[in-house]
Each structure stands twice: as C-alpha cells, then as structure tokens.
Specification:
- There is one protein chain.
- It is globular, with a radius of gyration of 18 Å.
- Helices cover 39% and strands 16% of the residues.
- It is of the alpha/beta class.
- Mean pLDDT is 86; it is low at 264-270.
- A hairpin with a 2-residue loop joins strand 5 (128-129) and strand 6.
- The N and C termini lie far apart (47 Å).
- The longest helix is centred in the first third of the chain and has 20 residues, at 13-32.
- The strands form two sheets. It has a seven-stranded mixed beta sheet with strand order 1-9-8-2-7-3-4, sandwiched between helices.
- Helix 1 (13-32) packs across helix 3 (64-77) and helix 7 (171-180) crosses helix 9.
- It contains ten helices and nine strands.
Length: 270
C-alpha cells in the first residue's frame, strides 16, 4: 500500500502540488505585473470534462507558454473570467494537467527538471536532437504515455514541435487524435517571444502585452477524417497555416504597432 497518492507516472501528488504553487507564485508577475496577459475564452475551460482533453497551441518559448496556461486554466476553474488576478487559485491546482515536451529540453538543467515534475510527458523527438536533424522511429512508449495522460486528465501539446513560427504540424499529433479521440481545444498565443528568451526563463522586455485566445473545440470526425485533413485543420486553428504567412507592408506594420501600443497602455493595470 502506497503511503501517498501518485499520478499515473509515479509522481507524488503532494510534491507536485507544492511545485505548482511555488512555480506559480514566482511566475505570476510575468503575466500580471511587469507584463500583462490578455485572455479570451475562460468559459470554455470551465465547460470541459475532467479528462480526455487535448490542447493544441502554437509555440513561442520552451517554458513561459506552459506556465501561462497553468495559470489561466486554474484561474478559469476557480471562477475567474479571463483574468489571473489573485494567485490564490493555485492553492488547489488541477493536478491531472500534463504537457508534451522534448526529453532533451526537460533534462537540460535543474529548473527544467523541477518543472518536468509538475506534469511533463517527456518524449524523444524523431526529427531533431541536440540541434541536429535526425530521422528515427517513434517510440511507442511515448505514444502510450500521451494516451495514459489523456485518460487521466488534460494534455497540452505544441504540434509544430518548435518555437519557430509557421513550421509544419507534426503528423504524430493527428495520429494521437485519431487514436484517442480527445476533445481538441485550439489555443493561439502571442507576445511571449517578445517578452522572454527562447527558453522562457529570462525576461527580455517589460511592458509587453501577451495574449492567449482559447477557442471552441474542433469538429473532428475521428473515424473518417484523414491525417492530412486533421493536420490542415490544426494549422488553421492555431493560425499557423502557410497561407496565413504574408509580407506586411511597412505602413501597415506601423499601424499594427501603434494599435498594439495603445492596447499595451490600456492593459497597464494590476
């Protein structure tokens, strides 16, 4: 008989809860202090079942994106409407929240290892390793781990597998969707790349308006939709389809920057 409760991967829940509270407390000011986080769609989070949910998102930093989602999801479940004021929502955090991450990233230092304990499903990338292109077989144990996490709770994945924008969606995500039939929730984030370094640990710029838009579940025919169709659907849902990539004229870019600065000033409050 175990002396303490564990998640399906053998992590002690009491330690997991402590680490989520700790990381949440020290990261809160990144999204509700010297930078701001604009949120849309909190009500969608509250209406989801406790398990079998897959969040798909574009990716801008290794850790800041996931940490922000941890804040937003728990705040929404605690009744916050599109805000993360008062970090008390992490007193009883959702412990069956997982995220897919590259194994080499999560083993790259003490902070990543600590962060991994909060819910990382660390997988071996099949296309990239230690900064070099590789071509290796998918490990079935990695696929099984994602399925195990979906059976237990919610899973966050970044299907492009990189922080570089408009890179192709990895077909493995579509296979996971067809295999597990989860509710698929798209998320579109912005501003994280401007605010933090690539790892998302070091602050690069203050007074950046970050945004997170949580969209309605995708309508997927798990039996009949092809992998290619699901991949394209994901690309449009997280706004990373190649057709959306266009060159913005200098004048239009200046207008967008001016509008963004006005938004930053508007959201410059606690």
């Amino acid at each position: 008989m175990k002396l303490y409760k564990q998640d399906p991967f053998g992590n002690a829940l009491f330690l997991k809860k402590f680490l989520i509270r700790f990381i949440g407390a020290i990261s809160h000011q990144r999204y509700q202090g010297f930078n701001k986080l604009h949120i849309e769609g909190s009500e969608i989070i509250r209406n989801l079942p406790d398990s079998g949910v897959l969040f798909v998102s574009n990716h801008q930093t290794y850790f800041a994106d996931v940490a922000a989602m941890m804040h937003v999801f728990n705040a929404a479940l605690s009744g916050r409407d599109d805000n993360i004021k008062n970090v008390g929502y992490l007193w009883q955090p959702k412990l069956n929240l997982y995220y897919v991450a590259a194994l080499e990233t999560m083993k790259s230092g003490i902070l990543p290892k600590i962060f991994a304990y909060t819910g990382s499903i660390s997988i071996e990338r099949t296309w990239r390793s230690e900064g070099k292109d590789v071509n290796r077989q998918v490990k079935m144990s990695d696929v099984s781990s994602i399925s195990k996490a979906l059976n237990d709770g919610w899973v966050i994945t970044f299907p492009q597998g990189t922080t570089t924008p408009f890179k192709p969606i990895r077909r493995g995500t579509a296979h996971i969707i067809k295999r597990n039939k989860p509710i698929v929730i798209p998320i579109v984030i912005d501003g994280f790349r401007r605010a933090y370094d690539k790892k998302g640990l070091m602050l690069k710029k203050r007074n950046v308006l970050q945004s997170m838009v949580i969209k309605k579940p995708l309508d997927i025919d798990y039996e009949n939709d092809s992998v290619e169709k699901i991949v394209e659907q994901l690309q449009f849902a997280i706004e990373q389809h190649p057709s959306l990539l266009k060159v913005i004229p200098v004048e239009e870019y200046a207008k967008q920057e001016e509008a963004l600065n006005k938004k930053r000033n508007f959201f410059d409050f606690y």
